[in-house]
Design a protein that fits this description.
The chain has 223 residues and is of the alpha/beta class. Helices cover 50% and strands 17% of the residues. The protein binds 2'-deoxycytidine-5'-monophosphate.
Protein backbone atom coordinates (compact mmCIF):
# COMPACT_ATOMS: atom_id res chain seq x y z
CA UNK A 1 0.00 0.00 0.00
CA UNK A 2 2.86 2.37 0.86
CA UNK A 3 4.03 2.23 -2.80
CA UNK A 4 0.96 4.18 -3.89
CA UNK A 5 1.35 6.81 -1.19
CA UNK A 6 3.50 9.93 -1.76
CA UNK A 7 7.04 9.61 -0.29
CA UNK A 8 7.86 11.04 3.14
CA UNK A 9 11.17 12.21 4.54
CA UNK A 10 10.73 11.77 8.31
CA UNK A 11 13.06 14.15 10.13
CA UNK A 12 13.09 13.55 13.89
CA UNK A 13 15.29 14.73 16.73
CA UNK A 14 15.48 16.81 19.90
CA UNK A 15 14.83 20.53 20.15
CA UNK A 16 17.45 22.67 18.40
CA UNK A 17 18.99 19.86 16.34
CA UNK A 18 18.27 21.83 13.15
CA UNK A 19 15.16 19.99 11.96
CA UNK A 20 13.24 23.16 11.07
CA UNK A 21 15.98 24.81 9.02
CA UNK A 22 17.07 21.58 7.34
CA UNK A 23 13.51 20.38 6.78
CA UNK A 24 12.41 23.59 5.07
CA UNK A 25 15.51 23.66 2.86
CA UNK A 26 14.90 20.05 1.82
CA UNK A 27 11.20 20.71 1.18
CA UNK A 28 12.02 23.65 -1.10
CA UNK A 29 14.78 21.68 -2.90
CA UNK A 30 12.53 18.67 -3.54
CA UNK A 31 9.42 20.76 -4.23
CA UNK A 32 7.65 18.78 -1.47
CA UNK A 33 5.21 19.85 1.22
CA UNK A 34 6.52 20.53 4.73
CA UNK A 35 4.98 19.53 8.06
CA UNK A 36 6.25 21.23 11.22
CA UNK A 37 4.57 18.89 13.71
CA UNK A 38 6.10 20.78 16.65
CA UNK A 39 4.04 23.80 15.55
CA UNK A 40 0.89 21.68 15.94
CA UNK A 41 1.76 20.83 19.57
CA UNK A 42 2.90 24.42 20.21
CA UNK A 43 -0.28 25.70 18.56
CA UNK A 44 -2.51 23.55 20.73
CA UNK A 45 -0.61 24.59 23.87
CA UNK A 46 -0.93 28.25 22.89
CA UNK A 47 -4.62 27.88 22.05
CA UNK A 48 -5.33 26.12 25.36
CA UNK A 49 -3.51 28.86 27.25
CA UNK A 50 -5.39 31.64 25.46
CA UNK A 51 -8.76 29.90 25.93
CA UNK A 52 -8.10 29.16 29.61
CA UNK A 53 -8.03 25.37 29.14
CA UNK A 54 -5.67 23.79 31.66
CA UNK A 55 -2.90 21.42 30.52
CA UNK A 56 -4.53 18.72 32.75
CA UNK A 57 -7.96 19.05 31.12
CA UNK A 58 -7.74 16.14 28.67
CA UNK A 59 -11.31 16.46 27.32
CA UNK A 60 -10.88 20.23 26.86
CA UNK A 61 -7.58 19.76 25.01
CA UNK A 62 -9.03 17.06 22.73
CA UNK A 63 -12.00 19.26 21.89
CA UNK A 64 -9.66 22.17 21.00
CA UNK A 65 -7.49 19.81 18.92
CA UNK A 66 -10.53 18.52 17.00
CA UNK A 67 -11.59 22.03 15.99
CA UNK A 68 -8.13 23.56 15.46
CA UNK A 69 -7.17 24.66 11.95
CA UNK A 70 -3.47 25.23 11.34
CA UNK A 71 -1.86 26.61 8.18
CA UNK A 72 1.91 26.64 7.72
CA UNK A 73 3.54 28.68 4.90
CA UNK A 74 7.11 27.72 4.03
CA UNK A 75 9.71 29.96 2.45
CA UNK A 76 13.37 29.17 1.71
CA UNK A 77 14.87 32.28 3.27
CA UNK A 78 12.98 32.57 6.56
CA UNK A 79 11.22 30.38 9.09
CA UNK A 80 7.74 29.13 8.23
CA UNK A 81 4.80 31.32 9.22
CA UNK A 82 1.95 29.73 11.15
CA UNK A 83 -1.72 30.62 11.31
CA UNK A 84 -4.09 29.07 13.86
CA UNK A 85 -7.84 29.43 13.40
CA UNK A 86 -7.12 32.32 11.01
CA UNK A 87 -4.77 34.20 13.36
CA UNK A 88 -1.06 34.66 12.53
CA UNK A 89 0.80 33.34 15.60
CA UNK A 90 4.33 32.64 14.29
CA UNK A 91 6.17 34.73 16.90
CA UNK A 92 4.01 33.60 19.83
CA UNK A 93 4.73 29.94 18.96
CA UNK A 94 8.50 30.38 18.63
CA UNK A 95 9.07 31.39 22.29
CA UNK A 96 10.70 29.01 24.77
CA UNK A 97 7.52 29.14 26.91
CA UNK A 98 5.45 27.87 23.97
CA UNK A 99 7.91 24.96 23.58
CA UNK A 100 7.57 24.09 27.26
CA UNK A 101 3.75 24.24 27.09
CA UNK A 102 3.82 21.97 24.02
CA UNK A 103 6.09 19.50 25.77
CA UNK A 104 3.70 19.38 28.77
CA UNK A 105 0.63 18.43 26.73
CA UNK A 106 2.52 16.19 24.26
CA UNK A 107 2.76 13.15 26.63
CA UNK A 108 -1.08 12.86 26.85
CA UNK A 109 -2.06 9.87 24.62
CA UNK A 110 -5.56 11.30 23.89
CA UNK A 111 -3.98 14.56 22.66
CA UNK A 112 -1.53 12.67 20.43
CA UNK A 113 -4.35 10.55 19.02
CA UNK A 114 -6.43 13.67 18.29
CA UNK A 115 -3.52 15.26 16.40
CA UNK A 116 -2.44 12.13 14.49
CA UNK A 117 -4.89 12.35 11.56
CA UNK A 118 -4.19 16.08 11.09
CA UNK A 119 -0.51 15.18 10.57
CA UNK A 120 -1.16 12.17 8.33
CA UNK A 121 -3.44 14.26 6.08
CA UNK A 122 -0.36 16.35 5.15
CA UNK A 123 1.02 13.41 3.13
CA UNK A 124 0.28 14.71 -0.35
CA UNK A 125 1.92 14.39 -3.77
CA UNK A 126 4.63 14.94 -4.80
CA UNK A 127 5.98 14.25 -1.28
CA UNK A 128 6.29 15.46 2.31
CA UNK A 129 9.14 16.47 4.59
CA UNK A 130 7.82 15.88 8.13
CA UNK A 131 9.71 17.30 11.10
CA UNK A 132 9.09 16.21 14.71
CA UNK A 133 9.80 13.61 17.38
CA UNK A 134 7.81 10.57 16.18
CA UNK A 135 7.51 11.05 12.42
CA UNK A 136 9.52 7.90 11.61
CA UNK A 137 8.19 5.79 14.49
CA UNK A 138 4.45 6.56 14.80
CA UNK A 139 3.05 9.07 12.31
CA UNK A 140 4.72 7.75 9.12
CA UNK A 141 6.28 4.39 10.12
CA UNK A 142 6.38 3.39 6.43
CA UNK A 143 8.28 6.55 5.35
CA UNK A 144 10.92 5.51 2.79
CA UNK A 145 13.42 8.07 4.16
CA UNK A 146 14.08 8.52 7.87
CA UNK A 147 16.71 10.77 9.41
CA UNK A 148 17.30 11.41 13.12
CA UNK A 149 19.19 14.67 13.70
CA UNK A 150 20.96 15.24 16.98
CA UNK A 151 23.65 17.50 18.52
CA UNK A 152 24.99 18.17 22.02
CA UNK A 153 22.61 20.08 24.34
CA UNK A 154 25.13 22.95 24.60
CA UNK A 155 25.29 23.40 20.83
CA UNK A 156 21.51 23.17 20.51
CA UNK A 157 21.05 25.80 23.23
CA UNK A 158 23.53 28.12 21.50
CA UNK A 159 21.71 27.70 18.16
CA UNK A 160 18.33 28.44 19.75
CA UNK A 161 19.89 31.46 21.50
CA UNK A 162 21.23 32.84 18.20
CA UNK A 163 17.89 32.22 16.47
CA UNK A 164 15.78 33.96 19.13
CA UNK A 165 18.31 36.80 19.48
CA UNK A 166 18.20 37.38 15.72
CA UNK A 167 14.42 37.75 16.04
CA UNK A 168 14.98 40.49 18.65
CA UNK A 169 13.76 38.35 21.58
CA UNK A 170 15.33 38.68 25.02
CA UNK A 171 16.98 35.36 25.96
CA UNK A 172 19.37 33.88 28.51
CA UNK A 173 21.73 31.13 27.34
CA UNK A 174 22.00 29.28 30.68
CA UNK A 175 18.21 29.22 31.05
CA UNK A 176 17.79 28.00 27.47
CA UNK A 177 20.22 25.15 28.14
CA UNK A 178 18.28 24.13 31.26
CA UNK A 179 15.02 24.30 29.33
CA UNK A 180 16.40 22.18 26.47
CA UNK A 181 17.70 19.56 28.91
CA UNK A 182 14.33 19.46 30.73
CA UNK A 183 12.51 19.07 27.42
CA UNK A 184 14.91 16.29 26.30
CA UNK A 185 14.10 14.33 29.46
CA UNK A 186 10.34 14.89 29.16
CA UNK A 187 10.18 14.10 25.43
CA UNK A 188 12.35 10.96 25.67
CA UNK A 189 10.91 9.45 28.84
CA UNK A 190 7.18 9.67 28.08
CA UNK A 191 5.29 6.45 27.29
CA UNK A 192 3.37 7.76 24.25
CA UNK A 193 5.60 8.01 21.16
CA UNK A 194 8.80 9.02 22.96
CA UNK A 195 11.59 10.83 21.18
CA UNK A 196 13.86 8.12 19.74
CA UNK A 197 15.33 7.20 16.37
CA UNK A 198 13.33 4.73 14.28
CA UNK A 199 15.24 1.45 13.88
CA UNK A 200 15.72 2.18 10.18
CA UNK A 201 16.69 5.86 10.58
CA UNK A 202 20.00 7.38 9.52
CA UNK A 203 21.32 9.07 12.70
CA UNK A 204 23.25 12.28 12.00
CA UNK A 205 25.08 14.20 14.74
CA UNK A 206 25.04 17.78 13.45
CA UNK A 207 27.29 19.22 16.21
CA UNK A 208 30.21 19.65 13.79
CA UNK A 209 28.33 19.81 10.50
CA UNK A 210 27.23 22.92 8.61
CA UNK A 211 23.65 23.24 7.36
CA UNK A 212 24.87 22.65 3.78
CA UNK A 213 26.70 19.47 4.83
CA UNK A 214 23.59 18.05 6.52
CA UNK A 215 21.38 18.92 3.54
CA UNK A 216 23.93 17.31 1.19
CA UNK A 217 23.85 14.04 3.19
CA UNK A 218 20.07 13.98 3.14
CA UNK A 219 20.00 14.68 -0.60
CA UNK A 220 22.33 11.71 -1.13
CA UNK A 221 19.98 9.50 0.90
CA UNK A 222 16.84 10.60 -0.96
CA UNK A 223 18.40 10.54 -4.41
O1 LIG B 1 9.91 20.73 17.58
P1 LIG B 1 9.39 21.72 18.62
O2 LIG B 1 10.46 22.24 19.53
O3 LIG B 1 8.62 22.82 17.99
O4 LIG B 1 8.36 20.86 19.54
C1 LIG B 1 7.76 21.40 20.70
C2 LIG B 1 7.32 20.26 21.62
O5 LIG B 1 6.22 19.55 21.01
C3 LIG B 1 8.38 19.20 21.91
O6 LIG B 1 9.14 19.51 23.04
C4 LIG B 1 7.56 17.94 22.11
C5 LIG B 1 6.32 18.17 21.28
N1 LIG B 1 6.32 17.42 20.01
C6 LIG B 1 5.97 16.08 20.07
O7 LIG B 1 5.72 15.55 21.14
N2 LIG B 1 5.88 15.37 18.92
C7 LIG B 1 6.16 15.91 17.74
N3 LIG B 1 6.06 15.18 16.62
C8 LIG B 1 6.58 17.27 17.66
C9 LIG B 1 6.67 18.00 18.84
Amino acid sequence: MSQTLPPVLALDGPSGAGKGTIGQLCAVKFGWHYLDSGAIYRGLGWLADSEGVSSNDVAGLVSLADSMSLVCHVCETDSATIEINGQMVTDQLRTDEAGQLASQIAPIPEVRAALLKMQQRCRKAPGLVADGRDMGTTVFPDAPFKVFLTASAEIRAQRRYDQLKAKGMSVNLARLLESIQARDVRDSSRDASPLKPAEDALVLDTSDLSIDEVVARILTLVN
